[in-house]
Each structure stands twice: as C-alpha cells, then as structure tokens.
Write a structure and sequence with these properties.
Distance between the termini: 24 Å
Oligomer: single chain
Shape: flat
Largest sheet: none
Structural class: mainly alpha
Radius of gyration: 12 Å
Helix content: 55-70%
Number of strands: 0
Strand content: under 5%
Number of domains: 1
Order of helices and strands: HH
Number of helices: 2
Length: about 50
C-alpha cells in the first residue's frame, strides 16, 4: 500500500517536472532499498542530480 502511494506521488512529480520542461527523474525507494543505496544516493546528491 505504501509503495503504491509512493508511486502515485512520484508520478505526480514526474508530470509536474515534465510540464516545466525539467529533465529530472523521480525514483521511489522502500526503506530497505534506501538503506542499501544511501551511499549511491549521497554520491549523486554530491553531483547535484538528486533532490
């Protein structure tokens, strides 16, 4: 249920960004996925590509 809601929110942001002409992808992660990918996300954030 929570993942479904997260997907809906991600899709909403994708559409908003698309309307503004911004080429940014939105990804959703479960808490477990987040834990496993924290360093990867930090690296992307350092490069300015993760919001």
């Amino acid at each position: 249920m929570a993942q479904s809601r997260a997907s809906e929110i991600a899709e909403f942001f994708r559409e908003c960004l698309k309307e503004k002409g911004l080429k940014i992808d939105v990804v959703t992660l479960s808490p477990e996925e987040y834990e496993n990918r924290t360093s990867m996300i930090a690296n992307y954030a350092h490069e300015g590509v993760v919001i």
